């Protein structure tokens, strides 16, 4: 598969036109949506670990929903759900699919798994939806929590309002633009989509949101006016 599509989500290209169902994060007694995918690097080394579902949802092309917890400064994987057919039809004769846990099947006799493989930023929406984008996890929110993780240890958590998050996002994208990876992806985008000029970069700013936001370029980076 072309590098452009492989780097975006490691899924079919059609999936990137659909907003994706988020992961779940438990932190300080609250449950959040998580617009990051810390399990992806682990599954790159264990591609057959997640049991395959017979149901495919365009809102969840990765095929699972992972639940994470930040506990004692560590990022822990505590559950993995996949979509399966329902057991019995409802009053209208319709059988609804449902998410079921496969964590015990994946990791027998484990209560959780410390995410020592993961180094990156976690993007945690913490406010009302501000702008919906029907593309991956590119939608934006009024407030965020952000966390930096190094080898499974949370080194920093900070809060950001929308304007400060966008400064951070633009800074991350600018740094990503300087990488060899970005140059290759940009060439792929121009070739695959036939774009020229800034149109391709504007599209990649939205399409690669999860990728460049997750990279820890500098552990001291954070929005200038972070806070509630």
Number of strands: 11
Taking all residues together, what is the mean pLDDT? 82
Question: What is the chain-wise order of helices and strands?
Answer: HEEHEEEHEEEEEEHHHH
Biggest sheet architecture: 6 strands, mixed
List keywords for this structure.
three-stranded antiparallel β-sheet; 228 residues; six-stranded mixed β-sheet; alpha+beta; disordered N terminus
Topology:
Layout: H1 3-8, E1 23-27, E2 30-34, H2 40-45, E3 65-71, E4 74-84, E5 98-101, H3 103-106, E6 113-114, E7 120-125, E8 129-131, E9 140-141, E10 143-150, E11 153-161, H4 162-176, H5 180-193, H6 198-207, H7 209-214
Provide a quick synopsis of the model.
The chain is an alpha+beta fold and 228 residues long.
Structure in words:
There is one protein chain. The protein has helices spanning 3-8, 40-45, 103-106, 162-176, 180-193, 198-207, 209-214, and strands at 23-27, 30-34, 65-71, 74-84, 98-101, 113-114, 120-125, 129-131, 140-141, 143-150, 153-161. The protein has a domain at 17-161. It is of the alpha+beta class and 228 residues long. The model is unreliable at 1-17 (pLDDT under 50). The longest helix is centred in the last third of the chain and has 15 residues, at 162-176. Strands 1, 2, 3, 4, 5 and 6 form a six-stranded mixed sheet that branches. A three-stranded antiparallel sheet has the order 7-10-11. A two-stranded antiparallel ribbon has the order 8-9. Strand 8 (129-131) and strand 9 form a beta hairpin. It contains seven helices and eleven strands.
């Amino acid at each position: 598969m072309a590098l452009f599509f492989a780097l975006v989500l490691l899924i079919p290209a059609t999936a990137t036109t659909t907003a994706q169902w988020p992961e779940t994060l438990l932190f300080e007694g609250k449950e959040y949506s998580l617009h990051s995918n810390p399990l992806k690097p682990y599954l790159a080394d264990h591609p057959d670990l997640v049991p395959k579902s017979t149901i495919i949802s365009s809102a969840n092309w990765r095929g699972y929903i992972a639940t994470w917890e930040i506990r004692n400064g560590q990022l822990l994987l505590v559950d993995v759900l996949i979509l399966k057919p329902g057991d019995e039809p409802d009053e209208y004769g319709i059988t609804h699919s449902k998410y079921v846990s496969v964590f015990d099947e994946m990791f027998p006799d484990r209560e959780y798994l410390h995410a020592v493989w993961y180094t990156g930023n976690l993007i945690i929406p913490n406010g009302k939806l501000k702008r919906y984008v029907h593309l991956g996890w590119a939608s934006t929110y009024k407030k965020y929590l952000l966390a930096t993780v190094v080898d499974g240890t949370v080194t920093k958590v900070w809060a950001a309002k929308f304007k400060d998050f966008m400064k951070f996002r633009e800074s991350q994208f600018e740094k990503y633009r300087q990488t060899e990876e970005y140059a290759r992806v940009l060439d792929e985008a121009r070739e695959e989509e036939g774009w020229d000029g800034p149109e391709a970069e504007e599209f990649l700013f939205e399409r690669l949101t999860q990728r460049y936001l997750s990279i820890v370029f500098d552990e001291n980076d954070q929005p200038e006016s972070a806070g509630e």
